[in-house]
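User: Hey, my collaborator sent me this sequence without any context and asked if I could get a structure. I don't really work with proteins. Can you help?
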Amino acid sequence: MRSILLSALAALMCELAAVGAEDAKPVMGLSTETWDFGTLEQGQTATTEVEVSNKGNADLKITFIRSSCAACVGNASGASQVKPGGTGKITLSFYSKGLLGQQGKVVYVHGNDPVTPYKAVRIIGTVKRTPRPEILVTPEVLDVGLVRKGEGVVRTLVVENKGEVPLSISSASGSEACQVRLPDKPSIEPGKKLDLPVSLAGDKLNGLIQEYLTIQSNDPIAPSKTITLVGYAAAPGQASAPARGVTVSPVGEPVKVPGTGGAVYRSYQLANHLPAKVTVSVAIGEKALQKVELAPGQTTEVEVFRDLISTELSEKAVLEFKVGFAAVLPAR
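Assistant: No problem. I've predicted the 3D structure and written it out in structure-token form, which is a compact way to encode the shape of the chain:
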């Protein structure tokens, strides 16, 4: 009889343990469901932190954060895993570039809560625009093509004032091989443009060209603009041959990503200087982001910003551009 009772008690304890294990689950909570960022000047960025709580009895994992538009960005690195009874923090950012007036956006925080797999945070506020200068430089990546080594090359950038008051350029400086001459006290009226000649010293170029030029102005939102110059410098005996290889160049200024302590580029320019079609696969770690095909001589811009911010970024994260093409290329 005693052995029967012990067996029954053991079976009951195992059953209770199994039921307890089945009932173990995380419960996600947020400290707020609405973030009012107030009033921003167009082009500025607002950032806030939202506390994530776990009122369940199993670990809560924040899997990803998605948004209703590109203006809203979330980073869950501070709350990727929250213990039962614990809290963590996610960082939300709102980028006001190109927006104006009353704003109403939504971000969705996804986790492993089986009952409520995601929660929404509504983002509201106002974007205003005070009359100001606004600089636009085109192109942001200047492909100078094939350059004869030792001869140099001159190309033209276009600086435009998209604002409402005059734009003043205070300086323009570049890397060692890059030179630019500004007119005296250059000022660009609203809606007007200025052609800016840029020269590359041929004796300082060899092989693939990747130089830069930085323009300083009185634009309060973007006081510094960096332009990348790419191409290929060949020796005189090789000058008749086209440039070779595939180049990858960042476009524009890097954007700070809250919660990471760093910044990322919104997009990259890819240029195919090979005589055959190439495939460029973009990935971060083991996560594939995009795949692009480039015809011979084709240049294209690849936007990676939204892919990057939906990934758990760290200082060790590596953005990879893997190039594939036929082993046997067409004869020149």
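In plain terms: Residues 238-242 have pLDDT under 50 and may be disordered. You can pass these tokens on to your collaborator as they are.
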